[in-house]
Structure formats: structure tokens, C-alpha cells
Specification:
Layout lengths: L8 E3 H8 L3 H9 L6 E2 L5 E4 H8 L7 E8 L2 H5 L2 H16 L2 E9 L4 H12 L5 E4 L10 H10 L3 E4 L5 H20 L2
Parallel strand pairs: 4-5, 4-6, 6-7
Antiparallel strand pairs: 1-3, 2-3
């Protein structure tokens, strides 16, 4: 009688690390039926390795990335802050051996054009990651929502910490400007 292979189940942290997502994102996927799981007698979730591999294989080229860079004002772009972000991320991608498929930029808030471009790349399975210098580049307030949307498409954000004095000084003013812009749309 042939032995049947037993499924291997992984704890949340290990499964999330393999998928390149946060354990909370993995939990949300499980609750929404995006990934199968079992519950241990102690109530913890375990994820089948076969499911992890299925989700990992959804991204065809794991080294293909997009770069997303944004500054809040034209004045900052004119002072070179946007170009420095892009150059920093290009160098990082080169060091990691990533293939840059697209560079998407914005001045001001993230634009519909940029969101559409990034989602289109994700849906077409052309990228596995979006490189940024901070989560607030993609959207300063609701970055968790974007992380979840892109995660469902098999794309994760890779945040590359950037030590740029001008960038750090502009962050507080940028958050205030975003809140004001959102309030104006009411």
C-alpha cells in the first residue's frame, strides 16, 4: 500500500515571510477565503505549504519590480528630491539584481494614472514588488489598504529606508497637505 504524502502546515509568521506579506494580511486573506488554512486545537491558524506555493507562483517574474516615487510639491521636484528618490531606488534595485519594469512618479498626491498603471502591472503579472522609500509614498493615510489590494494581486511593497534630510523635513508638511486635500473633497 503506497503512502500518501502528508500536507505540511506552516505557522502564520513563516507563511507570511515566504509570501512577502505581513501576518495580518495573511490572516485577512484567510478570513476572505483567498487562502486555505486549518485551525489548531489552541486556535492558531496554520497554512498549507501547497497554498503558499500556489500564491507564490502567481507572480511570474519575482525579480521584476516597479519603482514608485513621489514628492508633494513642484518646488521639491525642482530642487531634485524626486530625482534623488528615483536614483536611490534604481541603485537599490541594481544591488538586489531586480529588473525595473516601470518607474511611476507623482508630484502632489498619488494620481489615478499612477494607481491604474501600478494595478495594471500587477494584474498583468509583470511585477512582483513595488519599491518605495516609505509607505506614505503610495498614499500617506491609507497605505494599509493599498498593501492589501496589491497583496491580493501577488505584489508586495518593498520599503527601502532613505536617509535624506530634505525628505525627512518635508514629511510632516506633506501629511498636513494630504489631510487638507482630503477635506476639500468633502
Amino acid at each position: 500500500m503506497g503512502s500518501q504524502e502528508e500536507e505540511v502546515y506552516l505557522p502564520a509568521k513563516k507563511a507570511a515571510r515566504l509570501l512577502g506579506v505581513h501576518p495580518v494580511t495573511l490572516y485577512r486573506w484567510a478570513k476572505r477565503g483567498k487562502i486555505k488554512y486549518i485551525r489548531t486545537p489552541t486556535g492558531r491558524l496554520r497554512y498549507p505549504l501547497s497554498e503558499i506555493m500556489r500564491l507564490k507562483s502567481m507572480v511570474e517574474n519575482p525579480m521584476d519590480v516597479a519603482i514608485y516615487a513621489r514628492v508633494i510639491s513642484k518646488a521639491l521636484a525642482e530642487r531634485g528630491l524626486l530625482d534623488r528618490q528615483i536614483e536611490f531606488l534604481r541603485n537599490y534595485a541594481k544591488e538586489k539584481g531586480y529588473n525595473i519594469v516601470e518607474i511611476v512618479t507623482d508630484i502632489g498626491l498619488i494620481s489615478r494614472r499612477s494607481i491604474s498603471k501600478l494595478i495594471g502591472l500587477a494584474m498583468a503579472k509583470r511585477i512582483s514588488k513595488i519599491l518605495m522609500v516609505d509607505y506614505d509614498r503610495i498614499f500617506p493615510i491609507f497605505s494599509e489598504i493599498f498593501e492589501e489590494i496589491f497583496g491580493m494581486l501577488g505584489v508586495r511593497f518593498e520599503i527601502v529606508r532613505w536617509n535624506d534630510e530634505e525628505f525627512e523635513r518635508t514629511r510632516e508638511a506633506e501629511i498636513i497637505e494630504v489631510i487638507e486635500a482630503l477635506l476639500k473633497k468633502r
